[in-house]
Each structure stands twice: as structure tokens, then as C-alpha cells.
Write a structure and sequence with these properties.
This protein has helices at residues 40-43, 54-61, 74-108, 112-140, 147-159, 162-171, 182-191, 195-208, 213-225, 237-256, 264-273, 277-281, 284-287, 290-301, 310-322, 330-339, 343-353, 358-369, 384-396, 403-411, 417-425, 433-445, 449-465, 469-479, 482-499, 505-509, 519-535, 539-551, 560-571, 580-595, 599-604, 607-636. By secondary structure, the protein is mainly alpha-helical. α8 (195-208) runs antiparallel to α9 and α18 runs antiparallel to α19 (384-396). InterPro entries: Nucleoporin_Nup85.
């Protein structure tokens, strides 16, 4: 990838730690990104720190965060602009945090292949932050002439950090001005517009070399008086240009007078202050990139450059710096598109160069909130913002743990987000009940009724295959699937007939209104209630419920014999439980059961069934006799 060349400065050594001078820390901001050529695991070096861009992304993607038109509401627009700039800085801050993590992983990696892989990731992340920072300056903040140059200087200083290592090495020596890198450091400070640091080093030269005191004093004075735009300064651009012109003429006079002729280093610096392109290009190795050359060139030749003029200076600077020796890399193409204010081209080139949708999706979303992409709709009805968010969210759904984050992205895609979510939800492997419950909760919150039923049916079928009847019944109730609930209820009743007891009593005892889903489920719940009443010795209530189950015709015919058999203990109680009318009903049920069988079926019935029928007839007859005697006695009294 062409981005890899960018971070020559981000070498994975102990000295390079100074490269990670992160912007202001971000609270509660994280990021989900995988700009790796492989997968998410290789991107995040430690499993304890997985970046999820939940709060930043949610605040940005949320439609309520959209700014109003600046011209209509200037104060509110200014507030929203500041908010969007802060969000952009938050993104950059966490990119640099990822970069530092990768740097630490590369330093600690003993395997050369792993070290190389992490170093590549550092390069890619650094290039991403470089691009984002430039887009923030040009598009989000929309810096105007004057402040624009200051922002570009900060941009270059943040991404070129070799000078800090050289400064420490020079200042830690016994005689800094005699160090072989002394003038290189001074040159870099001047090239980056860091005049105070350059003047500080010049004072070292003046102290160590009395013959150069006068030249150092004059050069120091020129650096001190150099007019630069200021964010808090109220001077107009015309005033700034006038001051700069006077200062420029003074520098020109000293150079023509030969003031620095005896010291080639100072003479070279004076030429740089005058914006001499050849003098600046002589320091090509110290700048390393054409965009550093561009900013230095603007600083000393056109400090009040306007945004729309950048494209001309950028193109000529790249041509001069590369000089036909090498062709532009992908990063060069992206930065050039940004300087030309071709936002769509920036997004296109980033999509091609990067192996993940995170960067382009979030950058596009940010630009969309800045009202910069409103006119660009794609041919299939969506806009670029939604298209990229959909692509990124779809990628998240392929990951075992990040798929939940993809749901939030789909929620903020008004055109096709719900359709995409429905399609991806159906493809999630439901490996565990815990995961199924997570998916179910997501669907229920969004009233995705078809998906809810589908998930519940799938889980119910899995539970049934594993003979987990309680779980299967619970899922079928959630799915409101009457047919499946009937099937599972039959399995419960079958198990009861075979084992003589119910499993999952807690579930059956607490069915509540859910038992009305199907007649068979109602019967199961009521039959379990009969057993509970019997166990509590509430025989009269149990008898009424048992008779109701038989006469209401909600019990399966195959279960009638079981119900009649359950009546035997009640018929044999010392106290009469069934009334004469109830006893007649039981007799009728028994006769209906036996009358429905052919002679062949009766012949095939085993002795146990025959014995049950005889016992029931005997018990019913005896109970009827007891009832008649009891009722007759009561009438006689």
C-alpha cells in the first residue's frame, strides 16, 4: 500500500515515542476500526483495549446533531461548527491512540514478521490521521486566509517529529553549536516556522562563537520581527501583507549587503526567510514530503494565502519537490484532492487505498453534517453518506463480536438501514441462547415482528432437537406459534405418561395468560394445576377441574384414559368428592371412550387397559351408590 511510505518518521524504536504527542484526551470516546490487511485481532494488539467508536460516532451520526444553516442562525451555526470541529478532533485523537498502541506492540514484538506487520499498521494509521487532519482544516473548520496558514503549520509540525529527536541529541552534547546536527535542527525549526526554538539555538551559536555574534543578533532580530497571522489578532489581511512586505524588504537588504556572506548556514536561513524556492529545496531531506515544502513555501512567500489558491501552490510544490524523480503515491493523490477541495475525490481515493470502510464512512458522515455533501445522491436513491455507512455496518456484521455495533449504524441510515438490518439479522448464527436473546432484543426494540418469530422458531426447534422441552416451549410462546406450542405440549404430556411426572414445573406453573396460545397448552397448564390442587389436598377443587378438562373437549382423546385414571384416587376417598351428576358425567366419558373402539381394538387392548376400565367402572358405581345414600340421607333429614 502506498500509505506505508508516509511514516518514515514513525520508526518503531524507543526514540520514536515522541512521535505520539496526542491531541487533547477524549473521554468516553472509542473506535471500532480494522485498517488491517487481515482481521480485527491483528489490528488491536491487546484484547483488553478494543476500540469502539460508540459515543463519538453516535453523537455524529445522530440526525439531531445536524447543524442549522449558518446564514440563517449565525450564533447557533457557530456553536454547531465548534461542536463538529471537536468531534473531528476526537476522531483524530483516538486514531493516534490506536497508532500508539500499534507502535508499542511493534516495539515489544520479537517476531520480525509481526514487527513488520505492526509497523505497517502504524504507517497506515499515521496517513489516515494526516488526511483527516487536513480535511478538518479545509472542510470542517473551513479556515480562512491568515488562520489557514497557522493551521497548516500545526498540521506539518504534528506529523514531522524527527526534529525532536535531533534536538535532544544536540542539546545533550557538551558543545551543542559544534554538533554535526546543530544547523540541521536550526534549519528544521525555520522550515516549520518555529522561530522561538530557532532563536534559542542561535543563542548557543553566539555564545560559543564570538565572531558570529553580530550575524546571530541580526538574524535573531529578523526572526523576532517576522509578521505572522494570529488567531486573536484583529489586524486586517492588508495590514498583515504590508507589515510582511516591509519585513521581507529588510531581509532582502541584509542578504544583498552580504551580512551573512561569511556564514553559509545563516545565509541559507536568510534565503529561506525570503522564500527562495531553491534555498528551501536544498533542505529537501529535512522536509521529507512535498506538503511540508508547500507549507514552508507559503509561510515565507504567501502567508495570507486564500483557501481557493491552495490548489495552484500544492500542484507546483509537488512538481518541484518530486522533480520527476518519482510518481505520486496514493497518499499524494488524496492530499492533492483535498487541497483542490475535491471532497468526493478524497473519499473515492481513500476508498481505493484503504482496506476498510471505517475511515471513509466516518469522514463522509462528518462532511455530510457540515452540509458539504448534500447535493451528491447516488443513482439508486441513497446518498454517499448512507452508502458508506451501510457498507461499513455490513462489514461489522461479519465479525463475531462487533455485529452489535453495526446495528447502531443501520439505525442511522433512513433509506435502506432497516432493510439491510433485516437481511443481516437473519444471517447471524444463533450459537447460544444468550446470543439469540441479544438478537431478539434488537428485533423487538425495532418492531421487527417477522424476524422475532423466525428467531424464536429456530431456537425452539433447536431446543426440541436437544430434548429441552422447557426451553422449546418458552421460545414457541415468545414466537406466538400456536402449532409449535401444541406440538411441544403433546411432548410434555407424552413424557408425563411415560415417566409419571412433569419436567420444567416452574415454567408450566407460571404460564399465566400465555397458556391461551393453544388449546393443548391450555390443557397442559390446567392439568398441571389439577396436580397441584391434588397435592395440596384440595380435592373438591381438583375434582371440578378434572371434570371440566374432560367435558370441555380440550384434552386429546388419547389422554382421556389418563384423566379417568387420575379420578380413581378421588373416587376412593373416604369423603364423597364427586356428586351424582359429576359421577354420571364421568361414566359418560368412560363409555364414550370405550364405545368408540371397535371389537378388534378391544381385543388388541392389553390386560392393563382392560383392568383400568373395570376398576373405573367399579369405582364409579361404588361412588354413585355412596352419593345416593348420602344425598338420600340429607333429604330424609
Amino acid at each position: 500500500m502506498g500509505f506505508q511510505y508516509h511514516c518514515r518518521n514513525y520508526t518503531c524504536s524507543k526514540k520514536a515515542k515522541t512521535c505520539f504527542t496526542s491531541p487533547s484526551p477524549v473521554d468516553s470516546v472509542c473506535i471500532t476500526s480494522a485498517f488491517s490487511h487481515t482481521d480485527f485481532h491483528q489490528f488491536c494488539p491487546s484484547t483488553g483495549r478494543i476500540y469502539q467508536c460508540k459515543n463519538t460516532c453516535k453523537a455524529l451520526v445522530d440526525n439531531s446533531c445536524r447543524p442549522k444553516t449558518r446564514t440563517a442562525l449565525p450564533k447557533h451555526g457557530l456553536f454547531m461548527l465548534g461542536r463538529l470541529v471537536q468531534v473531528s478532533k476526537n476522531y483524530r485523537s483516538v486514531i493516534r491512540a490506536c497508532m500508539e498502541d500499534m507502535h508499542q506492540a511493534a516495539v515489544s514484538a520479537r517476531d520480525p514478521a509481526l514487527h513488520s506487520q505492526y509497523s505497517t499498521q502504524v504507517s497506515i494509521l499515521s496517513a489516515m490521521e494526516l488526511i483527516w487532519n487536513l480535511c478538518e482544516i479545509l472542510f470542517v473548520e473551513a479556515a480562512v486566509a491568515g488562520p489557514l496558514l497557522l493551521r497548516l503549520l500545526d498540521w506539518v509540525r504534528l506529523h514531522v517529529c524527527d526534529v525532536d529527536n535531533m534536538v535532544r541529541e544536540v542539546l545533550s552534547s557538551e558543545n551543542p553549536s559544534k554538533h554535526e546536527l546543530f544547523w540541521n535542527v536550526v534549519d528544521v525549526f525555520v522550515l516549520q516556522g518555529r522561530m522561538d526554538e530557532a532563536r534559542h539555538l542561535l543563542s548557543k551559536e553566539a555564545s560559543a562563537n564570538p565572531t558570529s555574534v553580530n550575524m546571530c543578533r541580526i538574524l535573531d532580530d529578523l526572526m523576532k520581527k517576522m509578521p505572522v497571522p494570529s488567531l486573536g489578532n484583529t489586524q486586517t489581511l492588508t495590514e498583515m501583507e504590508l507589515k510582511w512586505q516591509h519585513w521581507h524588504e529588510e531581509c532582502q537588504r541584509y542578504l544583498q549587503d552580504g551580512t551573512f556572506a561569511s556564514n553559509s548556514h545563516m545565509e541559507s536561513i536568510c534565503k529561506i526567510l525570503l522564500g527562495d524556492e531553491n534555498a528551501i529545496l536544498e533542505k529537501k531531506e529535512l522536509m521529507t514530503t512535498w506538503y511540508h515544502f508547500l507549507v514552508t513555501r507559503l509561510l515565507y512567500s504567501h502567508p495570507t494565502v486564500k483557501p481557493m489558491e491552495l490548489r495552484f501552490y500544492a500542484q507546483s510544490s509537488m512538481d518541484l519537490f518530486l522533480g520527476g524523480e518519482s510518481s505520486p503515491e496514493p497518499l499524494d493523490t488524496i492530499l492533492m484532492a483535498a487541497f483542490e477541495f475535491e471532497m468526493h475525490q478524497v473519499i473515492k481515493e481513500c476508498s481505493i487505498a484503504l482496506s476498510n470502510w471505517w475511515f471513509v464512512a466516518h469522514l463522509t458522515d462528518l462532511l455530510d453534517h457540515c452540509k458539504l455533501l448534500q447535493s451528491h445522491n447516488l443513482y439508486f436513491g441513497s446518498n454517499m453518506r448512507e452508502f458508506l455507512l451501510l457498507e461499513y455496518a455490513s462489514g461489522l456484521f461479519s465479525h463475531y463480536s462487533l455485529w452489535q455495533l453495526g446495528v447502531d449504524y443501520f439505525d442511522h441510515c433512513p433509506e435502506y438501514g432497516r432493510v439491510y438490518l433485516e437481511l443481516h439479522i437473519e444471517r447471524i448464527p444463533l450459537n447460544t441462547e444468550q446470543k439469540a436473546l441479544k438478537v431478539l432484543r434488537i428485533c423487538e426494540q425495532r418492531q421487527m415482528h417477522e424476524q422475532v418469530r423466525s428467531i424464536c422458531k429456530i431456537m425452539a426447534m433447536k431446543a426440541l432437537r436437544n430434548n429441552r422441552l422447557g426451553s422449546a416451549l418458552s421460545w414457541s410462546i415468545r414466537a406466538k406459534d400456536a402449532a409449535f406450542a401444541t406440538l411441544i405440549s403433546d411432548r410434555f404430556l407424552k413424557d408425563y405418561c411415560e415417566k409419571g411426572c412433569f419436567s420444567d414445573l416452574d415454567l408450566i406453573d407460571n404460564l399465566g395468560p400465555s397458556m391461551l396460545l393453544s388449546d393443548r397448552l391450555t390443557f397442559l397448564g390446567k392439568y398441571r394445576e389439577f396436580h397441584r390442587l391434588y397435592g395440596e389436598k384440595r380435592f373438591s377443587e381438583a375434582a371440578k377441574l378434572l371434570l371440566m378438562l374432560m367435558t370441555a373437549h380440550i384434552a386429546p382423546c388419547s389422554f382421556w384414559m389418563t384423566l379417568l385414571t387420575d379420578a380413581l384416587p378421588l373416587l376412593e376417598q373416604k369423603e364423597v368428592i364427586f356428586s351424582a351428576e359429576q359421577t354420571y358425567e364421568l361414566m359418560r366419558c368412560l363409555e364414550d371412550l370405550t364405545a368408540g373402539k371397535s371389537d378388534k381394538q378391544k381385543f388388541q387392548d392389553d390386560d392393563v387397559e382392560t383392568m383400568k376400565v373395570e376398576m373405573l367402572r367399579l369405582a364409579l358405581a361404588r361412588n354413585l351408590a355412596r352419593v345416593i345414600v348420602k344425598e338420600g340421607t340429607l333429604e330424609g333429614s
